[in-house]
Every structure is written in C-alpha cells, then in structure tokens.
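User: My notes are a mess, but here's the protein and magnesium ion's SMILES. Can you give me a structure?
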Amino acid sequence: MLGITKRFGPVTACDGIDFVLGRGEVHCLLGENGAGKTTLMSILFGLIPPDDGQIIVDGTSVQFGSPRDALNHGIGMVHQHFMLVPEFTVAENVVLGSRPAWTPRFDRAAAEEEVREVARTSGLEVDPRALIRDIPVDVQQRVEILKLLYRGAKVLILDEPTASLGPAGIKSLFEGLATLREQGHSAILITHKLTEVTAVADGVTVLRGGRLQGSFRQGNTDEAELARAMTGGDIAALPVRRAASGGEVVLRVRGLTVKDTVTGRNAVEDLDLEVAAGEIVGIAGVEGNGQRELADALAGVLAPESGTILLDDADITAMPPRARHAAGLGVIPEDRLRWGLVADLTLAENLALSDISRGGLRRRGRLLDLDGMQARAAELLETYGVRPPNPKARASQLSGGNQQKVVIAREMSRQPRLLVAAQPTRGLDVGAIDYVHRQILDMRDRGGAVLLVTNELEELIALSDRIAVMYRGRFVYRAVTADADVDAIAMAMAGISPEDADAQPGAAMEVA
Ligand SMILES: Nc1ncnc2c1ncn2[C@@H]1O[C@H](COP(=O)(O)OP(=O)(O)OP(=O)(O)O)[C@@H](O)[C@H]1O
Ligand SMILES: [Mg+2]
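Assistant: No problem, the inputs look usable. Here's the predicted complex:
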C-alpha cells in the first residue's frame, strides 16, 4: 500500500501511509486507539475506498470496490465481531455465500468434506458438523479463518484477534498462524499488545495519529522502541495494587442460576458471590463460561432462573436496569455497541442518557437542557481523554477504544456504589488501559465495590483483591490475589483443576 490517505470530515484517519507485506510473513499493525489501523485494513479489504494512494498486489496496481474484489486477489479480513450464524453448522458457515445458491440440492456431505479438507491442510482443526453456538470463541475464530481460506485467501487480516481469547486460545491461534505461514500464507494482526508482536511477528508497522511511525523487522527492534513509536513516549507501569479495606458487603449474590438464552443451558449455575466496599473482585475465565451472563444478570438485562441479588441489602433481583442504576449500580458492558452506547446519537446525548432518565439536565421540567448537556459532555470528554473531544460527534464515528472511553466516562462519573466492569479495557491502547486501571483503583480507594470481569490475566492480577475463575458456569478456583498462583489460574481457565495438572506435567501452560 503506497501513500494511503483517508479523511472522515475533519479527521485524517490515514495520512499518506505506506504498508508492505511479504509472502509468508506474519506482520503486526501496532498503534494506539484511533491510530488508523482498522481504517487502513478496511481499505485493503475493499470495505472503504481511499481518498488517495495505491494498492499493489503481486506487482499489479489494483482497485477494490468491495470485499469480493479483495478476496479475488486473495485478501480476506476477520472482523473483531464475528459474523457467523449461531444456528448453522461449521460447514454451513464456511460455505455460506460462496456457493451459487442454496438450492434444495445443497450437498451437505460434500460441503462437510470440503471443509474437513481445508481444515486438515491448514492445520486448523474443527468439527464441520458442530453448531457454531456450541463451540467456544477460539474455535469460532478458526471457522472465520477457514471461511477465508475456503475462498482462496492468501493474506489474512485479523482485527484484534486475541481480544476475546484466553491464554490457551491465544497459544493455539499463534500456532495456527505459524502453520499457515509455512504454507506461504501471510497474516496481518492488528494489535495494541507489544507482547504479541514479540511472540509472533516477522515484521511490525507502527501507526500513530494516522501517520506511519516506522516499520521494523523482528530482531531489529525491542519492546521499548516499539512502545515509544506507538505512544510517542514511554509507557507508564501498571499501578501497584494495595491491600483491601475489608468494608461492608455491597453486593451479595446467592444461588444465582442464569440460562443461556440461545441454548437454554445453565450458563451460570448456583453461584454465590460477595463484593465488599473498597474491594475489587476479579472474575477470570475463557469467554463463554458464564461470565457474560453473570454480568448481564447483575446489570438487569438478563433475568435469572433462580437466586437473589442484593445491593446494599436491597433485593434488586427483579429490578429493571434503570432502578438498579438509581440504586447505585454502574455498568461497563462487554458489548459497548449493543448495550453501552446508541451509535447514532451524539456523544453529548450518550453521556446524558442516565441523567435524563433520572430527571437531570432538564429545563422547566420537560425540555432538555441542551447547553447543559454540551457543556457537561465537553468536560467529561476532556477529563476522560476521548478523541475527538467533540460533544456533537456521533458515537459511531469514534474508534473502538474511544467509544469505550465514552461508556467509562458516563458510568464512572456517577460514582456508583457497585461497578460491574466487563472487559473494561478490551480494545484500548496502553495509555487508555492505564487510565482505566487508575479509575477503577480510585473508585475502590474511595470505598466503591468493583466486580471486574476480564480475560486479561495481567489486568486481573494487577487490579483484583480477590480472584475467582469461572468454568462452565461455576467458580472452579478462588483465591486472595496475594496468594494466587498464575499457573493455577490459567489451568482453571482451561478447565484443568490443580490436582489434574499435577497428574499430567505437560498440562501447565506459560502465561506472558
Ligand atoms: N466512519 C467513520 N466516520 C468518521 N470518523 C471515523 C470513521 N471511522 C474511523 N474514523 C476516525 O478515524 C480515526 C481512526 O480510526 P480507526 O478506527 O482506524 O482507529 P484504530 O487504530 O482502529 O483504533 P482502535 O484501536 O481504537 O480500534 C479515528 O479518529 C476515528 O474516529
Ligand atoms: Mg480498530
């Protein structure tokens, strides 16, 4: 890609960027939130046209009007939000859209055989007959990759592929990429994480504020140099965790059982949990083990089958979300675009949502105080470092990380009694992660209670006072963080209890 430029109104998302990818290369695209990574790759995948610049594939200048054009040149992209049909099998999802038509003569057996063959040659193991809804996230990701391989893709673009994976999933993804590389495929990984660059990349390109900061080869650079290129300065260390306060219990969950709305199985099973004032309790687990349903039940968007939820001794089990909010609950939902924000509203409107429902920001009782909304939004956007800090921008126009900052600004600024934070730093760059961590620790130090649900082990250990690992809807490991054993946590996430691990020495995995 040569001199790629893309403007969105006043924002220059990509400013004359050059990007080179070799055959059989795994290349990381590194940069902070809003650096232009997704935009650059969306241009390469034919999703959006560049304003300027050239794309050259195998020595030929090309123009992509759609992803189909890009695929015809062997370029495919996996989005961060998977686009699979949960009710379809793996094989159906892989061939979906690439066959001429779904006639009554759709040859299921032939499709399954083809998919089995692609899976075998690429080393990405899947069961072609499994339903998507029944397989874990890392296997779903494999299916997304298989979809591209099935369509003949030679270049795989993966947008933040590790964000929703646990340590085991990341390991198997990286092994899969190594196999594909041996077969002459290339991959581009969008990431914020320096450790991933060192783990898999042959090359790395760093973007910052829409500009190219540099391209490096593995071995010719180190994490410190990359961090400087990415942030324009040195990155701050993780805040130090302090001892817990031992305050009164704020959240008390008893015998909570929550059904998965799709499968009808128990996603959360007979769970007991307490979070005290001045305490952060961290819930770890590989995605799909009930953490989301637990958070949703606490937020009031999913009704439990049985059990009780007490907030400051008030029974909120049957309360609607708005009443819970008023009772002192703050929520950072995992799926920010679905539950955290209204994409087509402005930032001022998004930031005012809960205030308005509680009667705030109004004039003469009924009219909205628009000036007050703008002013308050401008202040929050500035304080929470949202880019651009424009109250009139629509939420849909912000980069993923900046959207998350808006949700955090709204929920944290209310100073809730209990904060349920699900994957609060997913998709955030180092600077923003550090900021969110400080916010969560501050809230804890002011006497708030925090339930943190995260897939990031480093984050879990850095922030939590107590840790619980969820596996198939239950806590399989609990510890005070000071006594926690990282290997035991990682193994519990993979469903291996500490006793099993002792019996099979090879089962222990490394955690970065
Ligand atoms: N459709 C759009 N309309 C307006 N502005 C946009 C649009 N898409 C992206 N931008 C802006 O372009 C810039 C780059 O965004 P992009 O999504 O490429 O960043 P990113 O590097 O992928 O960030 P993140 O790590 O947060 O996902 C941001 O300032 C963003 O607000
Ligand atoms: Mg992005």
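The first strand starts at residue 2 and ends at 8.
User: Great, I'll file this with my notes.
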